[in-house]
Design goal:
CATH topology of the largest domain: Glucose Permease (Domain IIA)
CATH architecture of the largest domain: Distorted Sandwich
Number of helices: 5
Order of helices and strands: HHEEEEEEEEEHHEEEEEEEEEEEEEH
Structural class: alpha+beta
Shape: globular
Radius of gyration: 25 Å
Strand content: 35-45%
Helix content: 10-25%
Distance between the termini: 65 Å
Low-confidence stretches: 7-25
Number of domains: 2
Length: about 280
């Protein structure tokens, strides 16, 4: 009888789950992505929930740093999917003291409309001197993105100029039957001299008059978020100046390669070219 009881105890123990193995299978925290399957040009909000920690959280996406901030009962971060990123699965790693998680974020194909334009030859073909100038300006702009400073912005980003969007983000342009780069910002119609406002607090890190973009301002909002404003008729800030959300940073114009008054504004997120309209709809609080 005693032997039978012993066998029953053994069988009962075998039927019970092993806590250590079950714990290993559980993710150290819950991670949600919005959108779950982003496309090129999208901004992804990453939400991490874990009742056992108050941080700090660290992360990377495809080798670039991800910045987490506390938000009520969770941590949130934003990730930019570059306009030219190929569809595929890319690594997302998140860690905190004593725990880590790695997963793949799926980037799906996203179609953008095609815009066909016919322009005067001298607006499309550049002289050797202008080609050299454009390259210098491109390098000066590219040197900005790796310098990711501390967070300056807070709350929601504002729309820098209310108006009709005459050219959407991501439009693939064919000029004089020659394929050109996709449109990496949005063009907003506006009257000459209308005020352009800073969408968030930041620092003016580039003030220049460039061949294509004319009078240009680039603001650094911290944590890899930059906003750009082109074709201005007048620049109202100086290089290195701190600006507050809503400050007037320039006036609408038609400088550079432009066919009429409008504002081109763009966003870089950890270097990725993303849709500015998604920036002003973010809810991270």
């Amino acid at each position: 009888m005693q032997r039978l009881k012993s066998w029953l105890i053994v069988l009962t123990m075998l039927c019970l789950p092993f806590p250590s193995l079950a714990a290993e299978k559980q993710a150290p925290f819950d991670v949600t992505l919005d959108p779950e399957k982003p496309g090129p040009g999208d901004i992804v909000v990453v939400t991490v929930k874990n009742k056992n920690t108050s941080g700090p959280l660290e992360g990377t996406f495809n080798g670039k740093k991800v910045y987490f901030s506390p938000s009520k009962d969770s941590f949130k971060a934003v990730i930019g999917i570059d306009l030219y990123m190929e569809p595929g699965a890319y690594p997302l790693a998140i860690s905190m003291p004593g725990a880590s998680l790695e997963r793949r974020m799926k980037v799906v194909k996203k179609e953008y409309p095609i815009q066909r334009l016919t322009l005067p030859k001298d607006m499309v073909e550049l002289s050797p001197e202008n080609e050299a100038r454009v390259e210098r300006e491109r390098l000066a702009m590219a040197a900005i993105w790796p310098n990711e400073g501390p967070r300056v912005w807070s709350g929601k980003f504002l729309n820098p100029l209310e108006g009709e969007i005459v050219t959407q983000f991501g439009v693939r342009r064919i000029i004089n039957k020659i394929p050109k780069s996709s449109h990496s910002g949005v063009d907003v119609s506006g009257d000459e001299g209308a005020p352009v406002r800073a969408p968030g607090s930041g620092v003016a890190v580039l003030i220049d008059e460039q061949f294509y973009s004319g009078k240009s301002v680039v603001l650094d909002h911290g944590e890899g978020i930059y906003t750009m404003f082109f074709h201005l008729s007048r620049i109202m800030v100086a290089s290195g100046q701190e600006v507050k959300k809503g400050d007037v940073i320039g006036l609408v114009g038609s400088t550079g390669r432009s066919t009429g008054p409008h504002l081109h504004w763009g966003v870089r997120l950890q270097g990725a070219r993303v849709n500015p309209q998604e920036l002003i709809t973010l809810k991270l609080e």
